[in-house]
């Protein structure tokens, strides 16, 4: 198989499984955002608070 055949096969598979192709990056983005949120919350809890 040459590069053009692989490229066409990739495009065909993305069209055939478009819902899965959208959900995968969305799930990765949600997972990364969750990790960032948890790290930010735990780091913010460790900072000294002048109002306490």
Alpha-carbon distance between the two ends: 67 Å
Shape: rod-shaped
Beta-strand residue percentage: under 5%
- Mean pLDDT, as a whole number? 91
How many helices? The count is 2
Task: Determine the structural class based on helices, strands and strand pairing.
Answer: mainly alpha
Keywords:
83% helix, 52 residues, 2 helices, mainly alpha
Write structural notes for this entry.
By secondary structure, the chain is an all-alpha fold. 83% of the residues lie in helices and 0% in strands. It has two helices and no strands. The chain has helices at 3-16, 18-46. The longest helix has 29 residues, at 18-46. The protein starts with a helix and ends in a 6-residue tail after the last helix.
